[in-house]
Amino acid sequence: MATLLDHPVATECPPFSFDALGAQSLTTHFSSLKPFSDFFDIKRMSRPSSLLEAQGRLNYNLSYFSSNYAIVFIILSIYSLLTNILLFFDILLVIGGIWGIGKLKGRDLDLGFARVSVSQLYTVLICITLPLGFRANPFSAAIWLIGASSVCILGHAAFMEKPIESHFSEEV
Question: Which domain of life is it from (predicted)?
Answer without folding.
Answer: Eukaryota
